[in-house]
Amino acid sequence: MTRSIDAATQTALAGDNFNIATLIQLDFPTVIRLTDWQRNVTAMTNTFVSSPDLQTTSDITESGELRINQTSIELGGESQTYVSLFFNNDYIDVRGRIWKAVLDSSDVVIGSPVLIFDGRITTYGITDDETSSKVVISLASHWKDFELVKNRMTNSNTQKLYFSSDLGLEFAHETRKDIKWGKS
Question: How confident is the model at residue 147 (pLDDT cuts 50, 70, 90)?
Answer without folding.
Answer: low
